[in-house]
Amino acid sequence: MWPFTKQHPDIWFTNTLSGRKELFKPLSSGEVKMYNCGPTVYDVAHIGNLWSYLFADTVRRVLKQNGYQVRQVINITDFGHLSSSADSGNDKMSTALTREGKELTLENMRELAEKYTNIFLADLKTLNINIKDITFPRASDFIPEQRELIKTLENKGFAYRTTDGVYFDTTKFKDYGRLGSINLEGLREGARIVASAEKKGATDFLLWKPDPNIGWDSPWGKGFPGWHIECSAMIQKTLGTQIDIHTGGIDLVPTHHNNEIAQSESASGKKPFSRFWLHHQFLNLKNEKMSKSLGNILNLSSLIDKGFHPLSLRYLSHTVHYRQSSDFTWEALAAAQETLVRLWNTAQKVRKQAGEKGSASEASLRMQTAFRDDLGIPRGLALLQEGLGGSLSVWQKWQMLVDADEVLGLELTNPPVGVREEDRAKANEREEARKRKDYATSDRLRTEFENSGYRVYDGVKETIYIQTTKR
Ligand code: AMP
Ligand code: ZN
Asked: Which CATH architecture fits 29-284?
């Protein structure tokens, strides 16, 4: 058939722009441009931050399952912006340099950022996010683009200068605050945005912050771009003036994302800057948002050190809908891991017996429909369990696992349970030692296994080996 047209089943997302669930359609058929607000790399990311990129990866996977190519960009904020979405306070990157006993220079900032960027990328990989498919632009590599954008905004009359910086004039942008229907009154002085003496309006925000001691040259003096401008500039450069999907945590809606829209649409004159805005809720710890400033954080490595497979965090993230917050507990993680290991064991059995190809199952189609319905991952997961426990043929169960894993990313088609062929003799030796209650030998062999990339769980009936590293 010519011209070749690919059918995409309907996908629905809740769009923060309209506040409703909407049918997804990209600007150009077949390709989706997606931007996910990235981390400030001043420390090791906590699992709350990682939650955000697990979410973005699930969006990507659902799009791919339905035949779309995805161009995905996650920015890396690698130099100081002021400490929060407000325009005041200490800068996180500078604070981190002091913490690490380094002098405050741009080179040191970049070096510190690279160190934490590498840890961030390694964490994403550990969570089975394919980082090769994603572009990670560093904000400090896009200073000329940020300066250009500010100049454009100035030339078009959207910006004004004060002695402490260049500001965006939010009264010039009539849709300001539309995303998330923000109550602008609520953003007045003393709230999230701290006023400067010369700032004309409380919601106006910095585009350029002069600093005589450190920064880049600009028509507004040596200094730094404001935080929000980096996303607008990098999106324009890497994806274009209009994109299909923009994501982030709900904390970014009132200020950062409204500011991005104001900058991008004012500069390009094109609306909407992003057709879909998807915001996820938080991962909490003891009922509070996990965040560095509150000090209630956990890193991925601390989960692994406690004996958890990293994918149990991914599994946990699939058990709650993205528009609901989740409270992290070790018990919940343990339960997630237990279910995941059971799923891996089933997958292994099913894989071995899969046999002759049959017809696609209704059960799998229902599961995929749930995935497409505003990322109904928890529902899809329940349907998967139902399908695996039901009367499908072994081949249909296998196919359902393959379909599920395209979205879940849990290595269901190549489960990391059991011992590798080359370690089988050692596992048998350990089994024998346990039978004759020779705990010295079984403990020694356990340590050997743990030192060579396994977690070992001695259950009542059998020992479960989980491969924590790939060979
Ligand atoms: P930041 O590095 O603070 O700019 O955050 C990067 C991303 O992580 C943003 O999209 C935040 O909304 C998100 N984020 C931060 N803390 C959490 C949390 N506890 N749960 C979920 N997402 C979070
Ligand atoms: Zn952003």
From this structure: 3-Layer(aba) Sandwich (3.40)
